[in-house]
Amino acid sequence: MGESALNIVELGEYVKRKRQDEKLSLREVATRIQVSASTLSRIENGIGIPDSATLARLAAWLGIPLERLMRGSFLGEGAERISAEPVMEPVIYYPTESTPNIVEAHLRADRNLKPDMAKALAELFRVAYAQFSNKQTDQNG
Fold this sequence. Notes:
The protein is mainly alpha-helical. The chain has a single domain (8-140), classed as lambda repressor-like DNA-binding domains (434 Repressor (Amino-terminal Domain)). Helices cover 59% and strands 0% of the residues. It has seven helices and no strands. It is globular, with a radius of gyration of 16 Å. The relative contact order is 0.11.
């Protein structure tokens, strides 16, 4: 069997960022996804490998397709694959996903961008999106 495409470190970073963006405690998220706070802490720190049931609950909480998470393309692993012929994998998203997640998926799938550049651009977009979407809400409210 080959190695898992799942990048545990990037998964942990993503989970932690979403938790902090939503201003939730470790314990609150752990309760929502039905794991212990210590398990969630290990996942966030990139030292715990979640089982399949936990991955499914994490994907649901993150609002991303589990298959993208497992392929590794969600977290950037797919962009590092080397082969004789490039394989074009579709970027799949669901309408319930947030706009920053959709943009990040597209950036990571872009073969013209190195993984670290795609990650940096996605982070820039997240910051700008949060700033401008809040201003739009403030102006309309």
